[in-house]
Design goal:
heterodimer; A: mainly alpha; Four Helix Bundle (Hemerythrin (Met), subunit A); 2 strands; 2% strand; B: mainly alpha; disordered N terminus; cytochrome-c oxidase activity (chain A); Cyt_c_oxidase-like_su3 (chain A); Cyt_c/ubiquinol_Oxase_su3 (chain A); transmembrane helix (chain A)
């Protein structure tokens, strides 16, 4: 039965593409997201809601920064570090950016290996991704410690507009929380991949449903989103 | 997509007609590597904008352009949006336009607040 369905499917069931397909998908009164599983669709919708949350944080940051009459502290100098006697502006943030992009790359590789059912390589790449993520959180903790020692508080700082502290802690704190949750998420999925859960169809401990390698892609969506948010924070908070 | 269907044997029997279009996304590793390198290059450019202390409109244009390019690459390739059907793409990518409208409103608001502060809370008497 399944064999027949698979043999006939490509010829008869291929839905229309482009704008016609868009209208057909939404008006079919059945299932709008044709080739996307509910898990993936729900992750996308969650990410959309997260986009609004981060969007609102960045908007409120923009509003306070544009409306204050006190000069804004220069991020280039606030986040500068002395490395081997060299004064490098914004260097830690640049390193954090590269670490996160690297982790996004390894994540994309993990998704690819997952769909090729390369169990060992998928698990290894997921672990590497989690490691880069943990490194990112570690550097962020260092950054926070440094700034708090220098006297930055949500209600004031030594260099200028008070709102700098609250915007910084709120935005990077929320992003760091996302990275931390992502690392935990990655470790759980890596363990499942390593154990072969997605090959044997072992039921999950929480949902009791059989997992499959698509979970790796869904985890990947979340992880890439965290990287995506950082792109905006890097540009709008650190480079403005 | 042809081999994606047999990459998941046995799965999806409960999902009914959806089995025909399996949800696997399989793309050459080379593409990911190229995008990865590009993200590195674009990030380096962003950093250099700050390193060379570019200011004014040039700084803004470069920052926003590099930001959009990086975001576009991540969403299109790493998150596979390029290969998804338009129904999903529009459902996810159109709503954030509301954030841009909100941003325009808040820019007006912030300007108004700044002008009021300059006018009424100015340190100089008079």
């Amino acid at each position: 039965m399944e064999g027949i369905a698979q043999a006939q499917a490509p010829a008869t069931m291929e839905p229309a593409g482009g704008m016609q397909g868009f209208v057909a998908d939404w008006s079919s009164d059945q299932r709008a997201f044709k080739n996307v599983s509910w898990g993936k669709a729900m992750m996308w919708i969650f990410l959309l809601s997260d986009t609004f949350i981060f969007g609102c944080f960045l908007l409120s940051y923009m509003t306070v920064r544009m409306s204050t009459t006190v000069p804004w502290p220069n991020p280039s100098e606030v986040f500068a570090l002395e490395i081997a006697g060299q004064h490098l502006p914004l260097i830690l943030i640049a390193i954090m950016t590269f670490v996160l992009i690297t982790s996004s790359g390894t994540m994309a590789m993990a998704v690819n290996c997952g769909y090729r059912r390369d169990r060992a390589r998928t698990a290894a790449l997921l672990l590497v991704t989690a490691l880069f993520g943990a490194a990112f959180v570690g550097m962020q903790a260092f950054e926070w410690t440094k700034l708090i020692h220098e006297g930055v508080r949500p209600w004031g700082n030594p260099w200028g507009a008070e709102q700098f502290g609250s915007a910084f802690f709120m935005i990077t704190g929320f992003h760091g929380t996302h990275v931390t949750i992502g690392v935990i998420f990655l470790l759980i999925v890596a363990r499942k991949v390593w154990r072969g859960d997605y090959d044997t169809g072992r039921p999950g401990f929480f949902t009791s449903r059989k997992g499959r390698y698509e979970i790796v892609e869904i985890t990947g969506l979340y992880w890439h989103f965290v990287d995506l948010v950082w792109v905006f924070i890097f540009a709008l908070f650190y480079l403005w | 997509m042809a081999h994606a269907a047999d990459a998941h044997p046995g799965h999806g029997t409960a999902a009914g007609t959806a089995v025909a279009h399996e949800e696997g996304q399989q793309h050459p590793i080379r593409l990911y590597l190229v995008v990865w390198v590009w993200l590195f290059v674009l990030s380096t450019f962003s950093y250099l904008v700050d390193y060379f202390h570019l200011q004014g409109m040039l700084r803004w244009t470069l920052i926003l352009l590099l930001m959009m390019l990086k975001a576009g690459l991540i969403v299109a390739v790493f998150m596979h949006m390029k290969w998804e059907r338009l129904a999903l793409g529009y459902a996810i990518l159109l709503p954030p336009v509301a954030v841009l409208i909100f941003m325009a409103i808040m820019m007006l608001e912030a300007d108004h607040t700044l002008l009021s502060r300059l006018q009424f809370l100015s340190r100089t008497p008079g």
